[in-house]
Amino acid sequence: MNGALLVAGTTSDAGKSVITAGLCRWLRRQGVSVAPFKAQNMSLNSFVTLDGAEIGRAQAMQAAAAGIEPDARMNPVLLKPGSDRRSQIVLLGHADGEVDAVEYRQHSGRLLDVALDSLAQLRREFDVVICEGAGSPAEINLRATDIANMGLARAADLPVIVVGDIDRGGVFAALHGTLALLAPADQALIAGFVINKFRGAPELLESGLRMLRGLTGRPVLGVVPWRGGLWMDAEDSLALDSRVASGGLSGPGGGSAGTDVLRVSVVRLPRISNFTDIDAIGNEPGVLVRFASAPAELADADLVVLPGTRATVCDLAWLRDRGFADVIAARARKGLPVLGICGGYQMLGRQIDDEVESGAGRVAGLGLLPVRVEFGAAKRLGRPAGAAYGAPVTGYEIHHGVAVVDGAEPFLDGCRSGAVWGTSWHGTMENDSFRRAFLTEVAALAGRDFVPAPDTDFAALREARLDVLGDLVAGHLDTDALLGLITGGPPPGLPVIPPAGGLLAEDSPAEDSPAGDSPAGDSPADGELGS
């Protein structure tokens, strides 16, 4: 077997990442060697590979579903927004400059070449490559410079399925409209649809499925039911809305060995990054996590977390403007726990010198840790290892700011002062023994009768959720049809749907300029950068 498939979506957060992961896990179970691929990703949730390359966190998760080590070629172009209009380009795992929307268009040709080369290499090494699109392929204002969706599909001759989120409403219009806005040559690659996040009686959908097929000439290849609590390494802050709406993350069942619940509030910074650091804490029985948008939401927290950010100085100013800084400082004076991770750690220090990320120069930090931070042009990427609380700890680091500690108790690569901890390492809470010891101390300082469950295995929980995704694919998608697309490509003679399908080639924007990349990714800032 040798083939590929592109999973596109009607919107960001429609389910492309989880369907891609589910397909990878299902194919792996069939004995197929499979790799994930996302040509261009816009995300502030990233990961570091064993060889020190930065890629999207979702592609690392999909690689785990495929049973392989993540590789920079699986996400050759990563965009990390630093403001509404500027993003850092990470090319094959390493920073390659910052651009705004206009400047980005000038890079699209070379980025497409890198993406196509990466995809070709993966296709030579694996039986199947499951590609994930970005945002929506129907962002027609960005089509001329797209490499993530139909630009990639056209250049590599990939069959495409489109995923729609029925939980948002309007899924039939979204699926039909996505197809109808595409140029004829793009429509020729759209081979079917998948409806995601369905709640209710499947028979109620039948008339709509029949009508959609009649209107488009393409089948719905499956209806995937709603499954809560999958939290699969989300790419963007849109996913936080569903977590907050459902009360935040919670443990897999039961409670702690004590009598109290442990409450964790994570400050929802405007440019929050790597909020997946909190997933392992949120999956401890008896721990409740919420993402706080107002200082009042910290009032009953036993632990406040300042997470990573792509814009440390700007988000620090936001903390002060919104009143978070005063609340956090008051907590520290009372001896109530505060944890800073990466950018959050930098904010907790006394001073930040930043001529790189913000260009603000010297800025006063919150002064809760004896730390001075200086930003350098080179980004630090690594997979460090150490120990704390007598437990081994591994993590990963992604930062321009370098912290220098002056006389505090060591904590991993950072430090601790009273009930305030800071570290540059991401992913530390995935170490079970360390996480339990840390939460035990947090509970003691907060005066809570909370004892972490002794047998929570985060790696096993993640594997179990990947297995659920594989089960959803096996149980609810037409896998025979999908295999046919993977090995044989899109079927010939698919009908062209108006209105865009009725345009003459010379009238179609997609035909007027070469395919390239756009910042059409999975972030609320996509439209700003691309407009």
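Next protein, fold it too.
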Amino acid sequence: MNFTPATLGNPATLVRRRLPIGIQTFREIREEGHYYVDKTGFALQMVAQGKYYFLSRPRRFGKSLFLDTLKSLFEGSQALFAGLAAEHGWDWSKKYPVIRISFGGGSFQTLTDLGHNLHQQLTLLEDQFDYQARFPDPASRLKDLIVQVAKRSQQRVVVLVDEYDKPILDCIEDADTARQMRDVLKNFYAILKDSDEYLKFVFLTGVSKFSKVSLFSGLNNLQDISLDKRYSAICGYTDADVDTVFAPELPGLDRAQIRQWYNGYNWLGEPVYNPFGLLKLFNTRAILPHWFETGTPTFLIKLLRQRQQFTPDLSRIVASETLLSTFDVGNIPVEALLFQTGYLTIDKFWQESGVLEIALKYPNLEVQASLNNRLLQSLTDNLSLPALQVSRLHKLLQAADLTGLKTMFQAFYASIANDWYRKNELARFEGYYVSIFYSYLAALGLDIRLEDPTSHGRIDMTVLFAGQVFLFEFKVVELEPSGSALAQIKSMRYADKFLGRGEPVRLIGIEFSKVSRNIVGFEVETLQN
């Protein structure tokens, strides 16, 4: 088939193409007329500027497709690149042997699982290159394969490793097994540095970035492009991609809503959409948590629960680049895990005494709403109730039914089992009650502003919704026995900054009791502009 810009992906024609949902094979996408967002310019840049690379991106972000694109490029499949950046930027006279290893399809619960997987992959590679293994262990087999393939082909070898960290992440809750997996992989990957003279290009991708000391000490020459602004859009779709390549899919959809729900992932450069979620949207034509529902963040939720995470803080974390970029088995900062798995992303950054500091946020409404709904289930040990209550909350706020709001939350706090309060240390403090209240509102995808600054102080929580302003102040009566929460809102004149908006401003003071484990004070007042 002859590939030209006119026959594949010319947005001006507004001809709908096939959606490459879940397809990770470059050849299939190009030969069968699927939409394709050209990432080959990034490939050219990488090859021109370096040799050893590492990239961390969340699941379902197109890492496997990019690796397969590299494979086709190095193998010299010129016809597949017609009309793309690589067509006239690559030396097609040379072809390189490619060794591709992927742990994406395996399930790793024991060290034996990893051994079987490595044996299977290496055997298939040895068959592909018509080579008989001479050594029993995986590291020696890989080294010998690289050397022999390079000698036979008279070309240096390309090595591509996909989901390099999956064997460790699959058993991350079993620290001893995870460390054993890490040590085996550490020896396996170390072979790559020792094979430098036989290698043309090396690229490893995964979800997480383990520390160089623990996993890459033998491969410390990797260039990490995870937080390189030049490569921020190496995986994912940009706004321009949506408006051009996917222009035929946009009629009938709310473009602003698409942006709010799915755009916003950022790695110090241009923000992008998650490809899987966007393609599912174009397929179903429905705004749903498409990406979030592909994988339950069980370990993440457990970790947040164990560490008694104050959920409002999730949307205002500030961390150093070093903290976000790496972790190890048994030492996993919540910030790094949330960032590397895609539940938080970069909001802004700055240099402070030579250290890059980064403020995080939810990437979009899909993640904000879905993660907080999952957190509610964990905070309350109830899998079904939160979703029903969130729907009701939306109607109550829209109608400004504050009496109904009070009743709903009182009933909800009363439904939480006594045993859960006993086990949860956070329940002793205001933070537990506020976490639940906040997560309910965040699960609606509302515009929430925490510790909202005014000229007189900081409002605990501001919510802008349905042409109304809701100002919330919280307190636990045992910790602050004097003065009501509503009185504080009024005495600090928190409403002043909103009086010029022409919208009703609703002041809501909520008081909790550690003894009754419920709302004991709920005062409201509405100011009309």
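About the second fold: The first helix runs from residue 26 to 31.
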